[in-house]
Design brief:
about 35% strand; 5-stranded parallel beta sheet; mainly beta; about 0% helix; 5-stranded mixed beta sheet
């Protein structure tokens, strides 16, 4: 990687990876580490757990069941995923850029507001939970 330029790091998960730490260092020995918990699924159907902190969770392809846990989680969706515990009061967010038009996503528990109005996909979003004041759009 060249100094002071944007670079892309590619990670390929062959099995579920949880709590991976990204450490980036230079030739002088200076380094920085990621402060977020990262969980990676595979191309298959996975059950991907989060932690009690802010998680970045990648479902990848397949029929995944994703649980964020406590903290400000980001669910990166692809394939037919089920999100177990979306909670906007913990500032959870959803990244839908990896969804194909034929994909279907189910949210089994929604606390707060789930706003998918900015999604550019025509994937199907459903809720499998009582709304009790929540907004799913």
């Amino acid at each position: 990687m060249a100094a002071n330029t944007a670079s892309t790091i590619t990670v390929e998960a062959r099995s579920i990876v949880t709590n991976a730490t990204l450490k980036v260092s230079d030739d002088a020995g200076n380094f920085a580490t990621a402060t977020r918990s990262v969980s990676l699924g595979t191309a298959g159907g996975d059950s991907i757990p989060g932690s009690n902190s802010a998680d970045l969770i990648f479902g990848f392809e397949g029929n995944d069941t994703i649980t964020g846990g406590a903290g400000a989680d980001t669910f990166v969706l692809a394939g037919n995923d089920t999100v177990v515990d979306f909670n906007s009061t913990e500032t959870d967010t959803v990244d839908t850029t990896g969804l194909a038009n034929a994909d279907a996503v189910t949210f089994t528990t929604v606390t707060g507001t789930l706003d998918l109005s900015g999604s550019t996909t025509t994937a199907a979003f459903t809720r499998d939970c009582p709304l009790a004041g929540q907004v799913v759009s």
